[in-house]
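Write out the 3D structure for:
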Amino acid sequence: MSNAALSRIVSAQAALGAQYLKAGRYRLEVQSIRTKDGFKGLSAIAELKVVSSERTQLATEPSRIGMVASYVEKLSEAKKNGGGRFKAFVMALAGAEEKGDKHAGAFLLIDCEVFPKTLPENDGKPGKFVGGHR
């Protein structure tokens, strides 16, 4: 292998797929909040560690304690308001209001419930099954 190839491997970020929460009720701990500029544009990413989990759906085992899940919003698509949604998420973590303090710290705890949700039909395509959050 050439030095250039080895250099690229050393400087590359490992390709870790995002982990998402399964249906359940959780207490989550913020591990990090960061941005990433990738081939699909700029994204904001919060990594959240499962501190406790509780089953809410008979057919689904919740995500395990210790797993680090990702909450990702694309910031590059203005029409989808990913920046606004992520800002609301961070402000909720900090207990901040729009006119108040906007700083969120790491290691805050979050109570969250993930539930099965079907998106409505769109452009003739059937509704997609996703996890809703509250």
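The longest strand covers residues 24-38.
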